[in-house]
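Feature request, filed as a ticket because there's no other form

It would be nice if the structure record came with a short human-readable summary line next to the tokens. Right now we just get the raw output. Example of a typical job, pasted below so the devs can see what we mean:
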Amino acid sequence: MKKSIQIIALLLLVVCDINAQQEKGITGFNSWLNNWTEFKPNKIDYNEVNQILTGNIIVDTKLYKKNVYLLQGNVYVTNNATLTIEPGTVIMGDYESKASLIITKGASIVADGLETDPIVFTSNRTVRKAGDWGGIIILGEAPTNKFGNISSVNFDTDAILSSYGGINSTSNSGVLRFVRIEFAGAKVKGGDNFNALLLAGVGNKTIFENVMASYSASDSFEILGGEVNLNKMISFKSSNDDYKFNYGTQCQIENSLAIRSSYLTSSTGSRCLNVLSYNKKEEVDFTKKHTFVTARNLTLVNNSENVKADIDSGLIKEGVYIAENASIDFKKSVISGFNPAILLDNAININDENLKKIKLEQMYFNLCKGNIFVVNNSNNEDLESWYGNAAFANVYSKAENIVTFIDFMNEKRPDFRLRIGGITVSNDD
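Raw output as currently delivered:
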């Protein structure tokens, strides 16, 4: 009888461990990456352009799957108009004019694709490359932490039509669902770049689900202020940050993925998550909310066949950067193949008060050269002691990516869910 009880207890322990493992990183009984994603976008042939989008869209307008649209120059949806895009529609950004689509304050976009019929924004070049066209900008009426309630983006865009911010956290700029954004990030005057998708002052009634940004020459997703919910997002091989949060963003991101390449790194730093509250202190009102990111079930992975060699050669840096006066609640997520996993700004005083604002619980740190460090400080004993507390249930491993994830090497249909039994516990840095 006693032996039977021991066996049952052991089985329950194994089942609980498997379930706990399954809960880390991106989740789903089946891979939600199937059908609508494209990991080799330069191999796809699209039909010829037969419609042109240019200038200002000032009335409700619908784009249809039967057409292929060329986006020329900065195209503004304004005057409270709604741009509706039918599932399966292809919009090509023009290389010569560094085309961009800008949804102005009060206007909206309804790009509601289907898993079997996604909406695609891509380059119009025969051989498509990162930075071929601008990207998509959505401007809303939600607050930022900047002085005043109104700011503007500066990407060679009309200053009046590029304003964002306000007091309406629940504003609605529309829907992006089952959408791919490919080869965006064109350079603008002053050396800056567009992002694949820029959200500025966007309110929480706006829907972002199943959006994939591939080969951006800058950030895949940049969020400036606002209150934003992101679900099932994918950043694939961006040159700069995968997800950048700034200027008081209040964001909940869950079940999302960042896939970095060791060979695509900006000189200014490229992270999976870059969590900031400002670029310059004099820009912001410290009585307003600082940036706060709630992250659940993220998988952040360096797509390298030899992580150790790439780290030793200096090709791989930190996976997550957290700046002064920015906070994150990070749980049930995977960070695999970085140097180190997480880096804190050296302006952050390492004390109980500040560390309670940087929550790391039920995390899986894998194949990283170090876990949590402060910039320019090799002594991380206090941080390891804090986050290594058993109450946080963080796990450390040195398993190769190929055995960590279900189908890491599949170039067409990769599966970045954790492989059952793939965790090998390690106490090594």
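Something like this underneath would help us a lot:
Residues 20-418 form one domain.
Helices lie at 2-22, 307-312, 352-355, 381-387, 401-404.
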